[in-house]
Design brief:
The complex is a heterodimer of chains A (32) and B (448). With 32 residues, chain A is mainly beta. Chain A is built from no helices and four strands. Chain A starts with a strand and ends with a strand. In chain B, the strands form eight sheets. In chain B, strands 7, 17, 18, 19, 21 and 22 form a six-stranded mixed beta sheet that branches. The chains are: A mainly beta (32), B alpha+beta (448).
Chain lengths: 32, 448
């Protein structure tokens, strides 16, 4: 199963993860 | 055959380096062609998503009546082409397999067996048994129940960033959406419209359900809302509304004002909407969808700002992130941000595997599979979350949507390529949707 997020955000929004990284509920995904 | 197999001599010889180089060039050329493929549109100007490849004609002509045995045999003899795999996997009765898988995993297990069985499963798939609630493995009657387990309170601390992970899993991909296309893997994209769906101009959605969503929010006054005990300012929750032309205030931040909602026209001028801002949401959505279709933009609507959200605010972009949940992961999902879900679209599709290997091999897998698109808005504008089903986890649950039924029997399924839509009309006249706080549990994936 997979979850796809699609969202509008300011252009300075940055993901704070790396491709392939394991992540858990509530952990940082991105921030402005 | 046995004689030929046993007596035909095998002669091994090295391939010249040039052949290997040529093969790499051909593969790179095909990958480039795939990324630049022509988009096929239907009579409404919407992209048609369909299987592609050398077997397309035969597949179109005979559909699933092509001998599955034949395809199965071919799969093992010709499993060298990702396009071909689409057709082979499409011929497998994945939905039926998913039903059977779900049924088997709903069978009640003997109490004495449960701890051993679940410990074995956890050892194989890497589940952390220290964080499950309740911790007694004998409490889980079936594997399906164990799969949909809860976590102990506080097991997942919530970060203070605006966006947090909605699930346990692996980040497959993320980035910026350009030209309305989402990158599945490097060089291969799929259409955002195909993933989320668009309203058909001039015709209603295939099926529309309107019901009162379970109201979990209370608007304290004009400026604050309480969602499950957490207070949000309406501006933080929904964003700062752009004032309509000719007025200083308006939109969601000031719901009591009777201001006409400005709607952009084809020529970029502003004109009054033909529906009141207080009209039922579906009327506004239908009207705005028509305007958006006329303008040729995607009708993700931002009611608060009186503009199609497909055209993002100046200085904004559309982003995406894909998170894959492995079989051993906690399979409930949570809200990745504070946002309001306005509608959901249930797309009935196939149930291909969505493992990283398959995502790499199978183009458009997220568009082909059964999925639930939850669309709404957050403080920066449009926000959407799409749980995508797979063969082993075909059932998607949404806690606040009791009417949703996924992976249903074939006889009751709507036509492929269509979606069933529900509009969440909250009791709150301000939020107009299902509000969710950050990290609030939203639903999950069930076995089968």
């Amino acid at each position: 199963s997979t979850i796809v997020l699609v969202f509008e955000a300011p252009q300075d929004f940055e993901f704070v993860v790396k491709t392939g990284q394991k992540i858990k509920v509530g952990e940082r995904l991105g921030d402005v | 055959l046995a004689d030929a197999w046993n007596h035909t001599p095998t002669k091994w010889y090295p391939l010249p380096v040039a052949v290997g180089a040529l093969l790499l060039i051909v593969l790179q050329y095909r990958r480039t062609r795939r990324s630049e493929k022509e988009v096929q549109l239907d009579e409404n100007g919407l992209e048609v998503v369909k299987l592609k490849g050398p077997w397309q004609k035969a597949y179109d002509a005979f559909g699933l009546s092509i001998s599955k045995t034949y395809c199965f045999t071919l799969h093992f003899s010709m499993c060298i082409d990702s396009y071909f795999q689409v057709h082979v996997f499409g011929a497998f009765p994945l939905k039926r397999l998913s039903y059977v898988w779900g049924y088997l995993n709903s069978l009640e297990l003997p109490v004495w067996f449960r701890p051993y069985g679940f410990k074995l499963y956890s050892w194989i798939f890497g589940c952390n048994l220290n964080e499950i609630d309740p911790p007694d493995l004998a409490h889980y009657a079936s594997l399906g129940e164990f799969f949909y387990r809860k976590l102990k309170p506080g097991a997942r601390p919530v970060a203070d960033t605006v966006l947090v992970s909605p699930a346990d899993g692996r980040v497959l991909h993320f980035g910026v959406i350009r030209d309305g296309r989402v990158e599945q893997i490097k060089g291969a994209t799929y259409s955002l419209d195909a993933l989320l769906g668009v309203e058909r101009h001039g015709s209603p959605p295939p099926a529309s359900i309107e019901f009162q969503a379970r109201d979990q929010a209370e608007v304290l006054d004009r400026d604050f809302a309480d969602i499950n005990g957490i207070q949000y300012s309406l501006q933080d929750l929904l964003g700062t509304p752009c004032p309509p032309s000719g007025s200083a205030e308006g939109g969601v931040g000031s719901p009591t004002q009777e201001l006409p909602m400005p709607m952009p026209t084809k020529h970029g001028e502003q004109t009054d909407a033909s529906v009141s801002p207080d009209a039922p949401l579906q009327d506004v959505v239908a009207h705005e969808a028509g305007v958006a279709a006329e303008m040729g933009v995607r009708p993700f609507l931002d009611r608060a700002q009186g503009r199609p959200a497909g055209s993002v605010k100046p200085g904004h972009s559309l982003f995406f992130a894909v998170i894959y949940l492995a079989p051993g992961d906690y399979h409930r999902f949570h809200s990745p941000a504070a946002w309001v879900v306005e509608k959901r679209r249930h797309f009935v599709g196939d149930l291909f595997s969505v493992s990283p290997w398959m995502v790499d091999k199978l183009a458009d897998v997220f568009v082909l599979n059964e999925r639930v698109a939850l669309l709404g808005r957050w403080k920066y504008g449009f926000f959407g979350m799409v749980p995508v089903g797979a063969t082993n986890v075909g059932s998607i649950k949404i806690n606040f949507d009791q009417a949703l039924r996924t992976n249903v029997d074939r006889r009751r399924r709507p036509p492929v390529g269509t979606f069933e839509e529900a509009v969440y009309t909250s009791a709150s006249p301000v939020l107009r949707g299902q509000p969710l706080s950050k990290a609030q549990e939203m639903g999950g994936f069930c076995l089968g």
